[in-house]
Design brief:
There is one protein chain. About 50% of the residues lie in helices and about 20% in strands. It has five helices and four strands, in the order βββαβαααα. Strands 1, 2, 3 and 4 form a four-stranded mixed β-sheet that branches. The protein is globular and about 50 Å long. It starts with 11 loop residues before the first strand and ends with a helix.
Amino acid sequence: MSMKCSCEQSLKLELRTVKYTRSVTIRHVPVLVCNQCLTYELIPTMRSDLKKYVELLGPRPKQTTFSMKDYHELADVIYGVLADAACPNEGLDAKIEHEIQERINLLLDMYRLAESMNDDGWISDIRQRLSQLSVILPEMNVFHADV
């Protein structure tokens, strides 16, 4: 994903571990990293979702560790692509975009099945999962505009 840092260097997509308070560790959080000035930022679409998950822990959370890939479709797709040793770094953007499209297609198939079964809980879950992926697509087009 070739977004630019304020220092004009390209940002690199990575999964990082983020600490929230002293007691909460969140693994596999997608971030954009600048290797030049050593700054990083959450992918913009992840901010509100990460905040929502943290708020669910309450004002004084117990010692806990969790992975964003278990709660967020985009984090799960990115984790799968980055964990695939056969995927070269230069093809990363295209691979992630392809995997997002594949996941959306799978979720749409599941949505049709859930609808045919009149399973409102499942339908609601799939809608949320689809929304976690669909918001990244316009951002990815912006990333590609710099190439």
